[in-house]
Write a structure and sequence with these properties.
The chain is of the alpha/beta class and about 450 residues long. The strands form 3 sheets. Strands 1, 2, 3, 4, 5, 13, 14 and 15 form an 8-stranded mixed sheet that branches. The chain has a 4-stranded parallel sheet with strand order 9-10-11-12, with helices on one face. The structure holds zinc ion. Zinc ion binds next to loops.
Amino acid sequence: MKMNRLNIACAIGLALASTLNIANAKTMVFTNVSIVDIDGSAPKGKQTVVVEDDRITAIGQTAKIPSGSQVIDASGKYMLPGFAEMHGHIPQQTAGEQAIKDTLFMYVANGVTTVRGMLGGIGQLDLREKASSGEIVSPTLYLAGPSFSGGSINSVEQARVKVERQKKQGWDLLKIHPGLTLEQYQAMASKANELGLEFGGHVPAEVGLDNILKHKQRTVDHLDGYVAYLDGESTPISDEKLLKVAKRTKEAGVGMVPTMALWRSLLNASDLETLQSQPELKYMPKATVDGWTNYYKAPRTTDFLRSDEPTVRNENRMRLLKAMDSVGVEILFGTDSPQVFSVPGFSIHREIDAMQEAGMSNKAILKSATVAAGDYFDDKDKFGTIKVGYRADIILVDENPVTNMDTLQTPVGVMAQGRWYSKGDIDKELEAIAKRARP
Ligand SMILES: [Zn+2]
């Protein structure tokens, strides 16, 4: 384990030299810290939190500090679990080693310590292993395989075979894209249920929302299919209809990954100038940002994005999210980065704004990114809460995010799998990423 940590520090160079020192400490201890109360279970008062390897091993007002520990005086600071990006896109091998490293670092820099990758590609399973063994600086990765879509599936038999193959290869879930026929979807779903594989993603038009709820698709990402189901492309949907479908979703046990900020951009319901003024664009190559601008300006041709009234459609989405939240649907935080004007890691702050605008409370937003993600993956590991035995994925901030979410934009430091990155470490590496993006 220690060897791995040395490699990590070497791999990203002098910029993270201080990580090397910290990583050599046997244990790491935060003293006098306030633990943010997200779900009512956080201990009250100033706490000492002990981390050994990748686990939180003790929490208490009088927790003993093991000798030789690296101690961080966190007086006046707040600690919360790292965020999960439940709809992220991990680059494929073809993106190049540096681009992959930079993407993974930008997640960590913003406190994203878990990513559910939502489109499988070459090299990602290797990357998942390197991330979990600590060989690279990365959030913990859970990965959907290459997608099931109209383009990749031509028959019922092919759907079944593809499920079996992805199970054998070890993907964590299946990704559903538009274009599947109902028969193909049903074949995929029954084979996946038989093999104990979950599936999530879009609602293919021919399958429709009723079948998605019936077959208990694990998540519907982007609130896809709901607006079409409720005829809300160009006219406001009634509160009654929104509430009814939200209740049905809750009963079916299907989770939502809303991706509000991204979808607003995709629908052209955001203002281009505002999008172009996002300071984090400096971390992306100019060609990428130009591509996003061109996309923004191009006409929408796919059904699930086409709309004559983007503002009305976006408002329907916001009200739908609020209705889902009000009846207790499982909401999981996701931004679909990197995608149009959605920069890995930084995109969480755009999504927080959008969820607030939809009317979710700060606690509900925090829960969707931490406790809810931990519950979602409870068969894989324990994380998403600051508790003994849980993975040491931690964000340390200056203020209580329950009252001020903006504090998350400038973390004092981030811990991913027990490895600590101070603000100084993070800023230096981000500066290097900006230079590489715009030499
Ligand atoms: Zn996506």
